Amino acid sequence: MVLEISQIDQGLAQKNWEEHLSCIKRIENTFDCSISYVNDHLFVNCETPDCIDHVVSVLEEMLQLSDKLGRLNDKDVEYLIELDRNDSLQLIKTIKPVNLGTNFYGRSIRGKSLGQSIYLSAIHDYELTFVLGPAGTGKTYLAIASAIASLKAHEIERIILTRPAIEAGEKLGFLPGDITQKADPYLRPLYDAIIDILGLEAFQRLQEKGVIEIAPLAYMRGRTLTDAFIILDESQNTTREQMKMFLTRLGLRSKAVVTGDPSQTDLPKNKTSGLSEAIKVLTGIPQIAIVELQSMDIVRHDLVQKIVEAYTQYEAFLKEEDTREQSESGFKSRLD
After folding, report:
1. Euclidean distance between the first and final Cα of the chain, in Å?
2. Which CATH class is domain 95-300?
3. Amino acid 172: pLDDT
């Protein structure tokens, strides 16, 4: 079935076609179709009308997005196809170019995947953003970069970063030093991200002035945080009480980002994660964005994406096995 596609802007097609041939090929291979652009006319050849609808949706978003963000790559198109499979392609329309400048070494800070671009747009547009996703998806780094950009633009007066102080699956025992030195190992990843963006000297100056504050979550109790950009990192390790306490610290002219990976909680098994519960409770409130990053958004070594996907599949298998065993156990008890 060959159909001429008229709903796609021909000007966009003409402008972006040649530099996206590999992306178009990826769409053809995924949907087992052929796409051609001849004499300013766009044609799609698919076996079914439903297939044509999916191809046109992905192709249209690809061309519009490339006009907004510049040249896309094969990974971006894979992301669009995955969103289409999940009926979530409308998320792409929320993306807008967000300029975060450069880091201390002169490298541009931007969303390196479509998921990260959606995340940055959410931070820009919403007063409170929850972001969920596996390790390596830039949850913490992009939140800190957004906070620093807001500080430089005089949109806020201070940055507050916090984490729950909880050991990641191992007992560290007694830690020497005062309270600051004891907390430092838990907060080190936040220091590393800020230093990468600002440099050590600039960070130390701002910290001494109280413009940047890094503290354990327990230090937030009883405070009202105004004119601030507040980041709660590793929030999967908060309890219900801690999460509620943090969310109610938000003062006037402030913005907050809550990051976490629900699959990596280090809480005792009898404790409910404050992050998982907050997502259930707060979904649907207009001023709150909830963004879910995927393994496709991982920007560390390529091997990290494969490791995360392998563990995700294995954990799903274990969960399925556990459910089956419980069902069998329940069935046997009814027989007895």
Report:
1. 60
2. alpha beta
3. 42
Which residue bears the tokens 């007066």?
157
Domains in the chain: boundaries: 2-93, 95-300, 303-336
Q: Which residues contact 148 (CB under 8 A, 6 or more apart)?
A: 100, 159, 194, 197, 198
Contact in structure between 134 and 263 (CB atoms under 8 Å): yes
Helix (H, G, I), strand (E, B) or coil at 258: strand
pTM of the model: 0.80
Whole-angstrom Cα Rg for the chain? 23
CA–CA distance, 174 with 182 (Å, rounded to integer): 9
What is the pLDDT, as a whole number, of residue 179? 53
Amino acid at 332: K
- Quick count: other Cβ atoms within 10 Å of Cβ 272? 12
55 membership: H or E segment, kind and range: helix 49-69
The b/e string for 279-290 (b: 16+ C-beta within 10 A; e otherwise) is beebeeeeebbb
Residue 284 neighbours by CB under 8 Å, 6+ apart: none
If we measure between CA atoms, which residue out of 139, 131, 155, 142 comes closest to residue 100? 142
Exposed (0-12), middle (13-18) or buried (19+): which is 119, by Cβ within 10 Å? buried
Of the segments 9-18, 87-96, 125-134, 258-267, which one has the largest average pLDDT value?
Answer: 125-134
How far apart CA 82 and CA 64 sit, in angstroms, is: 17
Q: Are 53 and 104 in contact (CB under 8 A)?
A: no
Alpha carbon of 97 to those of 67, 70, 256: distances in Å? 11, 10, 20
| Contacts for 33 with CB less than 8 Å, ≥ 6 apart | 27, 44, 45, 46, 47, 51, 52, 55
Query: pLDDT digits over 171-200, tens only?
Result: 444 555 555 555 566 678 888 999 999 999
